[in-house]
Amino acid sequence: MDRTTRWPGLAPDVVRDVASRLHDAGDFVRLHAVCKPWRSSGDAPPPTNQFLPWLLAGADQHSSTPIRFRCIFSKSSYRAPPPSPSVSRSNRVGSADATAVRYIHFKHGHASLQDPLTREVTRLPQISYFIHGHWDTEKTHGIVYGDSTVLLYTRVDHNRDMAWFSSALLHSGEARWTLVDRILKNETPRRHGGFCTAYPDGRILILEDRHWRVVTPGVAIADDVLVQMPVCNYPSHSNYILESHGELLWVSVRVKHTYENEEEGTSSSRTFLVLVHALEDNASAPTKMQWVRKNGPSLADRVFFLGSPNSITMDSSQLGGHGGFVYFVYYNHSKALPGELFGVLRYNLIDSKTEFVERVPPGWDNEKCTSLVPQPVMSPIQEITKRSRKDLEPNLKRQKTTPACMTHILRHYEPWFRVIVRNLPPRVNISELQLSFSKHGRVSSAEVVYRKTRRSERIGLLTVSMVYAHPQDAVDAFKGLYLDGCKLEVTFVKEGRRPRLGAPQLHVT
After folding, report:
1. How many CB atoms neighbour CB 504 within 10 A?
2. Is 448:437 a contact under the CB 8 Å cutoff?
3. Alpha-helical runs (H) found in 393-481
């Protein structure tokens, strides 16, 4: 058999085994795009927890801005066309397992959930809160659980000390909402990210001041259970609640600032502390519950991804066996350190060290991000062939129809730069120059400037597509570079964004 035909003849079971070991959605699509036999091997959908999560950018005020995603592990960015202009991107409803995110849309007292990727619309029964005007349709969040239960909630600050909490529960198969509202103390969780809600085991957990309120729907307010928060010297910055390994966990990110000038209030340094507590019954008081802190080694088998409105954990084996980490997005408010530590941080629960992972792309600095586990679905060969035949018939008048399940494409993009490199070694060639910069991205063109005497001017010109999400990271990466003992001087001539050549398109069908 000719060597060029061996790979397409690979046994389907072997291709499926290789595909099952890929945890990056882009790699999964690239594998099945090699040839028709490999694509046919992907008829069965992959497990929902196979792929590493993406970050979904926060709400954008411009309705025409594409929906943006970022995978911090593969250093890849993706885009999707924007949702309908009537949809508010700040109203997010996530699935409990982070496999889907939806925007909730209100119109004439009725609500609907719209999936921005599949364009699927789920219409919901009317909520009576709309009639009485107790629901803020601009600040609604929610979670859809595995049994199809929908929790929607909104929280409105009345004044400095009080807030109004309203929630609505819709169980699978039911046509009416179960409504729960409470008046909350409003002292501690006023900061963005300080408030969160969940619905585990038939109870609604609400973060309130210095305790958690556990509400059973349909039960009087007097029967609410208040679970005190453990005392901590670090001020609370953001809180998250999730279920993992059969436990209900509360993750709190705390930041302690050290001030260089107390009067101006400018922070010169900060120390992070991430605490994980499990909700357990109090053995001494059966009707009470308590938060019990989990130590770092007990969490070494998983990795946390914190976001809003939902957070998730993944098995450490999907990340090369390295567990006990917490990934979260942090916004630096300090005027003394502009731009520093704004992006994704990784906290080690075992040694309590914090590591800066990367800046998030420009425009992501206004909201908490949402974690989304991509679910790529491979289109059948017959469907692709049918599309190709239609594309080859330009004179055929085709009527646009709406398919039963719409196709949506996520497009890979990244920043690219045209740079001038000075002070090159006298004998460097194009291959060496290209190899030197390839670790920072893909070098699409490179040249060394020579005199008429064929002597090097020690100047190089390159076009580089970067792996960094933020342009400033690319600028910083080119500082202090050396090649054969010569310190390189890099000047950026042009910056832009363009589709990454040869990048796959992820189809959701």
Report:
1. 20
2. no
3. 430-437, 471-477
Helix (H, G, I), strand (E, B) or coil at 302: strand
- How many whole angstroms from its chain centre is CA 203? 27
What is the secondary structure of 263-286 as a DSSP string?
Answer: TTTEEEEEEEEEEEEEEEE-TT-T
pLDDT attached to residue 85: 77
**Strand 140-144, strand 92-95: pairing:** parallel
Tell me what pLDDT residue 1 has: 43
Angle between helices 25-32 and 12-20 (to 10 degrees): 170
Residue 391: partners with Cβ closer than 8 Å, 6 or more residues away: none
Q: Which pLDDT belongs to residue 412?
A: 54
Cβ 388 vs Cβ 381: under 8 Å: no
- Candidates 346, 343, 338, 345; CA nearest to 362 is 343
How far is CA 159 from its chain centroid? 32
Q: Are strands 140-144 and 121-124 parallel, antiparallel or unpaired?
A: unpaired
The radius of gyration computed from the CA coordinates of the chain, to the nearest angstrom, equals 26
* pLDDT digits 0-9 by tens, 407-420: 454 555 566 788 89
Q: Which helix (H) or strand (E) holds 387?
A: helix 381-391
For the stretch 59-102, pLDDT in tens is 665 567 788 888 888 888 888 888 877 777 888 899 999 999 99
Helix (H, G, I), strand (E, B) or coil at 488: coil
Report residue 251: phi and psi, to 5°.
-110, 125
For residues 421 and 428, is the Cβ–Cβ distance under 8 A?
no
Cβ within 8 Å of residue 430, ≥6 positions away: 446, 447, 448
User: Tens digit of pLDDT for each residue in 205-217?
Assistant: 998 878 899 999 9
The residue length of the chain stands at: 509
Rounded to 5°, angle at Cα 362 from 360 and 368 = 55
Q: How far is CA 432 from CA 416, 426, 427, 436, in A?
A: 20, 12, 10, 6
Q: CB neighbours (10 Å) of residue 458?
A: 18
Give the count of alpha carbons within 13 A of 200, CB side only: 20
